Each structure stands twice: as structure tokens, then as C-alpha cells.
């Protein structure tokens, strides 16, 4: 049984809006949204709603747009609304620690990058710039920064920033729902992995190419989730001259 969670969201960009939109298909309740103040258009002729504010207005969700999240004011909103989880993605501002500690089950952050390697600004653009062949959605706890879930995808040398942004925004919504549903089942934050480079990179996605999967035999030990349990995979082999998706060789 999955318990419905009461959510506060914090985000501003189109990526955040698309991620949050996926939550509308669930039984979890979006109580209110924090987002950045409206800004003038490029020519300064009119004030534009940012994508998250538009998402909230379209779905009749309460919106707060402080220039700065002041703990005393924001805490009042959070406590009175009886929030279970604060979900943050692409907020473009600082979330005070006092605010993070209020939700009953904590706060989580959705990142459009493979952590810890993809830290910093513009992670999607940096992935393309580095000519990486993988990208990732990583969901972490905000208080500890520990990884709750990683969803790795393969990309090609021809993938551009816009294509990767749009695809990751879909994957991020799906990954967020998976995390929230597991939290809703056990009423606690998930088992997490510290953000050590080798551990986070070894979290397997079964849609990846076998040549990526095989890289983690034997150190670091490959990890995955099966029936909501952490599983360590001790031996992986790729046969010479053949490149399969992992599900084809299991």
C-alpha cells in the first residue's frame, strides 16, 4: 500500500515544471510551490510567469514567490500545511537548512546529472560539452546529499543539449515518482549511498549497454535495486566483439 504524501515543491525552470507535471498522475498531493519571482521579458516590455508558476496556476496550486526564502516566514507555511516531503529541482536559489528540516520525511533534490561528477551549473550542457556517452537523473537527500536513486541513460555524440534536456525531464518525473512511491510505502527515506564517485557510478540501469555495465567488475561492486532491496552484483562479463543491452544477456 502506498500512502499519499503531502508535497511542497521548489523549482523555477522548464525542467522543473516538466518534472513536477508527472506528479499529477499520482495520488500524492502538491500542497504548494516555491518559485523565483517573475522577471521582465528580454525587452523588458512585460513581466513573464516562469514555467513552474505557469504549471501551478494551470493546476490551481498555491504559489509562493519570495525574493529570498526566509526561514521564519517559510517555516510557517511548511508547518501549517503539514508537509511530508519537500521536493527541489532547478529552484535557482538557496534553500535554508531550517526549511529542509521541517517536512516529516525530509527533503529531496532531483539533479539532471550523474553525481558527484556532474556537480555545478549547467550539468546538461557540460555533459554534451564533455562528449560523454551517458547522462543521468540523480535523486539525493538534501540534508546529507546521499544518493537515493540514479537513472542512467545512454546518449550519442549527436545528442544536443535541447534533446537531452527534454528526455531527462521525462526521466526525472518517472524517477521522482518511483522514489516518492517507495517512501510512501515505508514512510521513511530510502536506503542511500554516500556521494563517493565510485559508488554512485556503479549504480546500474538495466537499459544500459553491456560495455558500460561490465566496467564495474570487480571494483567498485555494481549495485542495483530489486524488489526495493539493494543488490550487489559481483561478476559481470562482456564477450569480445558483441555489444548487447544487459537485458539480452541475463
UniProtKB/TrEMBL annotation:
Domain annotation Formyl transferase N-terminal: ranges: 10-178
Gene Ontology CC: one annotated term: cytosol
The protein's Enzyme Commission number: 2.1.2.9
Gene3D superfamilies on file: 3.40.50.12230
The keyword Iron-sulfur appears for this protein: no
Alphabetic keyword roster: Transferase
GO MF annotation terms: methionyl-tRNA formyltransferase activity
Record-linked PANTHER family: METHIONYL-TRNA FORMYLTRANSFERASE, METHIONYL-TRNA FORMYLTRANSFERASE, MITOCHONDRIAL
Name of the protein in its database record: methionyl-tRNA formyltransferase
Organism: Candidatus Johnevansia muelleri
Amino acid at each position: 500500500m502506498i500512502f499519499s504524501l503531502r508535497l511542497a515543491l521548489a523549482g523555477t525552470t522548464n525542467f522543473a515544471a516538466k518534472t513536477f507535471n508527472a506528479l499529477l498522475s499520482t495520488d500524492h498531493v502538491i500542497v504548494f510551490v516555491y518559485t523565483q519571482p517573475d522577471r521582465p521579458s528580454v525587452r523588458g516590455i512585460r513581466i513573464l510567469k516562469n514555467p513552474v508558476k505557469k504549471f501551478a496556476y494551470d493546476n490551481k496550486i498555491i504559489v509562493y514567490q519570495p525574493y529570498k526564502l526566509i526561514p521564519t516566514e517559510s517555516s510557517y507555511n511548511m508547518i501549517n500545511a503539514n508537509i511530508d516531503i519537500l521536493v527541489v529541482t532547478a529552484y535557482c536559489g538557496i534553500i535554508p537548512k531550517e526549511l529542509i528540516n521541517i517536512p516529516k520525511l525530509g527533503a529531496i533534490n532531483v539533479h539532471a546529472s550523474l553525481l558527484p561528477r556532474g556537480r555545478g551549473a549547467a550539468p546538461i550542457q557540460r555533459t554534451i560539452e564533455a562528449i560523454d556517452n551517458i547522462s543521468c537523473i540523480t535523486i539525493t537527500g538534501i540534508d546529507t546529499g546521499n544518493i537515493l536513486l540514479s537513472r542512467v541513460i545512454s546518449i550519442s555524440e549527436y545528442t544536443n543539449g535541447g534533446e537531452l534536456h527534454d528526455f531527462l525531464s521525462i526521466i526525472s518525473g518517472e524517477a521522482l515518482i518511483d522514489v516518492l512511491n517507495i517512501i510512501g510505502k515505508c514512510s521513511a527515506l530510502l536506503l542511500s549511498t554516500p556521494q563517493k564517485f565510485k559508488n554512485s557510478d556503479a549504480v546500474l540501469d538495466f537499459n544500459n549497454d553491456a560495455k558500460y555495465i561490465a566496467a564495474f567488475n570487480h571494483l567498485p561492486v555494481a549495485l542495483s535495486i530489486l524488489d526495493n532491496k539493494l543488490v550487489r552484483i559481483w561478476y559481470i562479463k562482456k564477450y569480445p566483439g558483441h555489444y548487447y543491452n544487459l537485458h539480452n544477456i541475463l
